[in-house]
Amino acid sequence: MRRPVIAGNWKMHNTTEKARELVTLLRPLVGTTGVEVVVCPPFTAIAATVNAAAGSNISVGAQDLFWEDWGAYTGEVSGPMLKDLGCRYVIIGHSERRQYFGETDATVNKKLHAALRHELVPIVCVGETLAEREAGKTLDVVRRQVQEGLQGLVPGQVETLVVAYEPVWAIGTGRTATAADAQEVIAFIRETLRAMYGEEAQATRIQYGGSVKPENIAELMAQPDIDGALVGGASLDAISFAAIVNYKE
Ligand code: PEP
């Protein structure tokens, strides 16, 4: 049984004060769910968020990490630093990082191994652009991202991993993939992982991300291979994010 995991990616939003306010509102609203709840603030608000979430069932994740642990890498933040702050999760290879900061499947792979080395749960993002979808290349792109970005895992790591399928054309646009389209690609991701790593891939949780809202979460979660969601815009509002987390009610 895969426990659903719903994560909020706050992107470049929220000061420490706002982060505290948001988590304080959220805590009582997500107290009784069987879903794993994660919020991913910007680096500057991680400590405040961890503090505000202490004793609740909200875990905290970062939005990125660097693959080296220490050294002359101005501006970077490493796995040991995130662990030190109390992070449990880290998003890797979000399409905005691929688009604006030159991340590739090779850098995603290095970051994945760094996260696992420090017992951070990686949430690795994959997904096609609109042009790739329209050219009929969705499955080729996603296969390459999975085969190259997720290579070199050992038994025990595949079940820890979380993958987020996020079609780039659905992120922040209000356009959601249909539940059936999302299920098709996510089943394909699981099949690709199974070809690489065998039956352990049945335990890997695969989220959908891209304009997830309270109105569409239940249909997405009803699909057999969708194990949660990575939520951007709607995670900035406690009521909306809680409604997504409590999709069963
Ligand atoms: C995201 O940032 O990963 C995302 C899916 O954003 P949104 O929910 O706003 O589309």
UniProtKB/TrEMBL annotation:
Key words of the record: Cytoplasm, Gluconeogenesis, Glycolysis, Isomerase
The protein's enzyme class: isomerase
Residues annotated as catalytic: H94 (electrophile), E166 (proton acceptor)
A Gene Ontology cellular-component term: cytosol
Coiled-coil ranges (or none): none
PROSITE patterns: TIM_1 (PS00171), TIM_2 (PS51440)
Main localization, broad class: cytoplasm
GO molecular function: triose-phosphate isomerase activity
Catalytic activity: D-glyceraldehyde 3-phosphate = dihydroxyacetone phosphate
Any Pfam family hit: TIM
Oxidoreductase as UniProt keyword: no
Cellular location(s): Cytoplasm
InterPro entries (alphabetical): Aldolase_TIM (IPR013785), TIM_sf (IPR035990), TrioseP_Isoase_bac/euk (IPR022896), Triosephosphate_isomerase (IPR000652), Triosephosphate_isomerase_AS (IPR020861)
EC number: 5.3.1.1
Amino-acid positions noted as binding substrate in the UniProt annotation, renumbered to this chain: N9, W10, K11, G172, S211, G232, G233
Pathway involvement of the protein, from the record: Carbohydrate degradation; glycolysis; D-glyceraldehyde 3-phosphate from glycerone phosphate: step 1/1; Carbohydrate biosynthesis; gluconeogenesis
GO-annotated biological processes: gluconeogenesis; glyceraldehyde-3-phosphate biosynthetic process; glycerol catabolic process; glycolytic process
Xref: CDD domains: TIM
Complex and partners: Homodimer.
Biological role: Involved in the gluconeogenesis. Catalyzes stereospecifically the conversion of dihydroxyacetone phosphate (DHAP) to D-glyceraldehyde-3-phosphate (G3P).
Similarity comment: Belongs to the triosephosphate isomerase family.
Name this protein carries in UniProt: Triosephosphate isomerase
